[in-house]
Amino acid sequence: MTGDGVLRPAIAEALTSAGLDPAEVVRVIRRALDEDLALGPDVTTNATVPAGARASGDVVPRTPGVLAGVPVAAAVFDLVGGAEVDVVLHAADGSDAEPGQPALTVTGPTRSLLTAERTALNLVSHLSGVATLTRRWVDAVAGTSAAIRDTRKTTPGLRSLEKYAVRCGGGVNHRISLGDAALVKDNHVAAAGGITAAVEAVAASAPGVPLEVECDTLDQVREAVAAGVELVLLDNFSLPDTRSAVALVRGSQVRLEASGGLSLDRAAEVAATGVDFLAVGALTHSAPVLDLGFDLR
């Protein structure tokens, strides 16, 4: 590894332009590289590739989908190879992955390219998988007013990147952490002594913080609305009860989010009830990777 561990300005700018924090991306990549290099350098590459060899290689989609993380992959090669590696981005995140068409080309010391290869592919394949699955859900509810929203069911250490990939696929983000919004769930209700008590406690402790309440029944929806909540999560509601909840809040500022028991084949009918969001944990916890490879020329 010849890089100095600092992103060159062009790569940092590409990440920033995509809406990513370069410092956070560097932290993720360093953790990943530490796993590969914890016991020393790449013994296979160093044994088979002459020290002065140079090559070019392409990150290429093998299957159709939606790209996410192309500048992240570029950052991996940049951190490993430093100024000795030239990076050219051919495709933007959020664009269609075209099988056989390079999304990214890198040129530099062959040892650096091969050392960076797996970490770069792990990240761009995973993020593109999240974006691709998100796009399927977004397409499934097309023609309705519902948006597809993620959850906190993310891979530890990868939340900001996975939520970025959701945006690349056309979805919208829920809270990024426990401090930027409140979500009163059943355990909070039990601890506080009821929905109204829980809402009042949150409002008093964190005024101005967006507040959502999870409800299991229509009676709980009524109580949450009466308590002044503006966002209600409908947990595992049937279609008839979801329609009833929509009717309950019609004409108000209250928004509804359907969650639990959702699937792609049911997405359209749930969205057609008039809810504002479908919360889909699967976007991040169950997305299959998009198949991308790295080919030396």
Task: Give structural notes.
- This protein has 297 residues and is an alpha/beta fold.
- It folds into two domains: 9-138 and 288-296, Aldehyde Oxidoreductase, domain 3 (Alpha-Beta Complex); 140-285, Aldolase class I (TIM Barrel, Alpha-Beta Barrel).
- It has twelve helices and twelve strands.
- Strand 8 (211-215), helix 9 and strand 9 (231-235) form a beta-alpha-beta unit.
- The radius of gyration is 23 Å and the shape is elongated.
- The two termini are 21 Å apart.
- The model has no long low-confidence stretch (mean pLDDT 96).
List its traits.
297 residues; alpha/beta; Aldehyde Oxidoreductase, domain 3; TIM Barrel; 2 domains; 6-stranded parallel beta sheet; 4-stranded antiparallel beta sheet; 45% helix
